[in-house]
Amino acid sequence: MGKRSRKKSYSRHNDKVNTERIVEEEMIDLEDTAEDLKMTVTEAEDGPDRKNTDENGSTTIPAAHEEAGEKPADDKTAEANTSGPAAAKQEDSEKDTTGEETSEHKAAETETPEHEAEPPEGKEEKDTAGQPDNKEDKPGTKKSKKNKVKKEEKAEDNDEDLYKDEVYKDQDTSDDDMVFLDISGDEVKIITPPDRESAGKERKKITISIDTEAALSWLFVLIGAAVYISLTFNNNVWLDEAFTATLVRTDMAGVLERSMADTLPPLYNIILKLTTDIFGYTVPVMKLTSAVPMILTMILGATVVRKRFGALTSYIFIPALTVMPNMMFFGVEIRMYSLGFLFATASGIFAYEVISEPRRKNWILFTLFSVLAGYTHHFAFVTVGFVYLFLLIHACAEQRKFNTERDRELHPIILSSFAKCLFATFLLYLPCLLVTLRQFKSVSGYFSMPEVTLPVFVKYCRYPFTVGFTPLSIVLLALAVILLIRLVFRLFGEHTRDDVFALYCFILFYGVLLFGTVVSKIMTANIFVDRYLFFALGLVWLFFSIEAGTLKKPLVYCIIMLELVTGIYSYTQAFTSEYARGADEMTAWLNKNVFEGDSLYTLEDYEELAWCLPFYDDNLTNYETLDEAVTAAGGNNVWVAVMNGYEDETANELPKGNPGYAAYASELEDAGYTLEYEDVFRFDRYMFKMFRLIRQ
Predict the structure, then answer these.
(1) Residue 21 CB: number of other CB atoms within 10 A?
(2) Residue 482 covered by a domain
(3) pLDDT at 183 > cutoff 60
(4) Which three-class secondary structure state does DSSP give residue 52?
(5) Rg of the chain's alpha carbons, rounded to an integer?
(6) What's the pTM?
C-alpha cells in the first residue's frame, strides 16, 4: 500500500464560529486517522521478523534486527505468522484504543515465533518493558506530539490559520492520491478526485491568447492616428480652409443656408459646426475633425480588410492610408475630402463584402456609405457610382449562372437585390440631388478650374504616385505597374475573385478621371480638378495592397520599408506646410491694430487674402471695390493687402516698378489717397504686405 498525501483546503466563512471549530476538529481527526494508517501500513510492510509483542499487545522491533540491517521476512512468512488467539487479542485492543482503523488495517499482530532467528552478535535489543499498551498515549511519539500541538492551536483559537491554504504532499505521490475537503456551510465533507471540479477546488490555469496579426494591424492604426493628430496643432489655413471655416461661423440655420448657396453638399459643414460648438472654434479642432475620418478608414483596414484579404494586405493598406502622396495634406485639411474619402472607400469595401457574404447587414452598410458619400462631395458620389457599376456587372455575371433553385442559393447576388439597393440609394439621395441641380445653375460663375488638356490629363494619371520627389515617384509608379501586369497575367490563368476586385479598384480611379474630363468638356465651365480624384485613392491603394499581399513575405517587408521612406518624405513636407511660421505673429498684429468696423480691400481681388484675413480677425470685412471699402469704413481704417510678388519693393518704401501697381498707385493719388506701409506677413503658403489707406 502506497503512501497517501494530504491536502487541506479551506473556504473563508466570516462570522461562522461553528464552522471554524468543525473544520479544526475534522482536520485533527483526519490527521490522527492518517497517522494511524501510516503506522499500521509500516508495521505490516516490515513483517513479523521485525516485531515483538509484549504482554499488553504493544509491538516492539528487535534491536538485533534493526542494527544488523537484516531484511524482514517476505509477505508469505508474515501472513503465516499473523494468526491465532494472540492476533485476535491484538485486533480487539486496537479497536478499543483508536476506533478509526479501516478493515485492511485490522490485521492481527502476533508475538515473534520461537523458531525466529537470533539477532546478530554485538547488537543490543531495545527494552520495551514498561511501555503503555495504547498507541495513542505512547509518550514521545510523533503522533502524541502532533495531537498536543493541535489541541494548543485549538485553544488559542487562531482565526488566521483557519483560512490559510495548506498543502501537505509527498514527492512520490500523484494528484489522484489527494484528499479534498468541501466546506459548504456548517458541514465538512471529504470528496474524491472525480468531484474536484464540481466542488470548485481544482486550480485552473488562466491563459490569455493574443492575436498577433490583429495586434500588429492595430499598431499601424495607432501610428497612423498619431501622425495625423501631430499635424493639427497649428493655426495655418489656406483659401479653401478659410472659406469653410468662415462658413460655419454662424448658427446652424445659417450653415445650412450658406451650404445650399455653395456648390457642394452640406454634410461636412454640419459636422464641422457641431464639433466647433462642442469643442471650440479653433483651427486645431477643425483639423482634428478632418483627421478622424482618415483614422476611421484605417480602422476598416484593421478589421474588415484584414479579415477578408489577410494580414499582409492589412499591413500594407493601413500605412498607405497615411504615408502615400496627398494623404497627409488632405487628411487634415479643413474641407470635406477626408470625409468623402472614408465613405467612398467604405462603399468599395462593403460592395465586396456584399459579393462575398450577401447578408442584409452588408447591403445596408454598403447603401448607407454610398448615400453619405453623395451628401459629402459630388465626386465622392461619382466614385461610388463606379462601385455600383462594378456590382451591376458582377450581378449580371452571376445571373447567367442561374439554371435551378440550387444555383440561386449558390449565387445569391442577383439583379433583383441590386435593383432594391439602387432604388433605396436614389430615394435617400433625392433631397441632396434636388439641391445639387439648383447649385449647378451657378456653376459657370463659380468654378475657375484649369482646363484639362493632354499634358494636364497625363499629370492627373500619375496623381496617386506623385510624391514631390521624382525618384521616389518613379519607384512607386513602376511598382504599381508591375503589380498590375502581374495581375493581368494571372487573370488569364488561375485567379480568385479577390484578383477581379483588385483590378476593378485600379480601373475605377481612371474611370472617375475620364468622367470628370468629359463632363468638363461638355459643360460651359470646367468643374474638375486633380484633388477631386482623392476620393478614389483609397481603392487604388487597396488594389496595391491586395496584390502586394500575395507576394512572398520578404518582398512584402520591402514594400513596407518603401512606404516608410515615402512616409518620412511626405511627413516632412506636410509638417513644413502645416507649421509654417508667421500665422501666430500675423494674428497678434491683427488683434492689436484692427478694430471693429475696419474695412479690407485686396489689390487685384486676391481671393486668398479676401477670405483668409477676415477668418483670422472677424473685425475685418472684405469689399470688392475700394469705394465700397471706404464708404463702409466711415471714419475707421481701410486696410489694403497686396500679395507678395505683385510688385517690386524696397524696404519700408512704397513699392514701385510694376506697371500695374504703379498705375494703381497713381489712381489712388489722383483720388486723394496714399498707402502707408505697415509690415510684411506670411501664413500657410502665402506672403503679403499690409498697407493703411491714408486720405491726403
Answers:
(1) 13
(2) yes
(3) no
(4) strand
(5) 46
(6) 0.69
